[in-house]
Amino acid sequence: xxxxxxxxxxINRLISALGDSDKNIRSSAxxxxxxxxxxxxxxxxINRLIxxxxxxxSRVRLSACQxxxxxxxxxxxxxxINRLISALGDSDNDVRFYAxxxxxxxxxxxxxxxxMNGLVNTMADKDRQVRFxxxxxxxxxxxxxxTNDVIDQILLDRGFKNDIKSLPIDCSFCQWTGVLNNYQxxxxxxxxxSTCEYCGEEFNSINKYKEHKIS
Length: 215
Ligand SMILES: [Zn+2]
Ligand SMILES: [Zn+2]
Hints:
With 215 residues, this protein is mainly alpha-helical. It is 62% helix and 5% strand. The protein has a domain of 81 residues: Leucine-rich Repeat Variant, CATH 1.25.10. The strands form 2 sheets. Strands 1-2 form a two-stranded antiparallel ribbon. The protein has a two-stranded antiparallel sheet with strand order 3-4. A hairpin with a 6-residue loop joins β3 and β4. The radius of gyration is 18 Å and the shape is globular. Pfam families: HEAT_2. InterPro entries: ARM-like (IPR011989), ARM-type_fold (IPR016024), PBS_lyase_HEAT (IPR004155).
């Protein structure tokens, strides 16, 4: 069996696992597909992950967000983007966090006014880390000149006096508040190592820390 055939065999098995009655199997299947990344980004897989975004189990929903994020621009279909926008209103903090992350990774195709409006709303989320991930997704999209103009226009329309670099942001680790443009510097200076409050393990990136916390 060639590598390609082997890959599609694996993908087919993972697709059936997404329909398993055991939620742990469904979320592991999402995780495995996410690990395969772009290689697994067939339209069937993307459609199944979109269905998983509406799963009754929050762990499955968040793994589906993560998987779509890892597939990045390849998963940026309008259906996937719309469902991720809905996921910004999920009842689970971690699902909202990873929905922001996924949208941020989808690049230009996700830089629509619907997405931006969703992310701008999410910047007022009750959870600090979710607010942070919304800001970061907006910042990531703003690194592209075209999307940067789209974002600035939306912010202007929404009554913001500032451009994205001067958006207010709260640190997810301490009481620091400032603007987006200075946040990375703050993170590097004060939180280059974050320590888990439960087990004491240290992390050098907020994403690794977040992944550790929910696993
Ligand atoms: Zn801080
Ligand atoms: Zn820990």
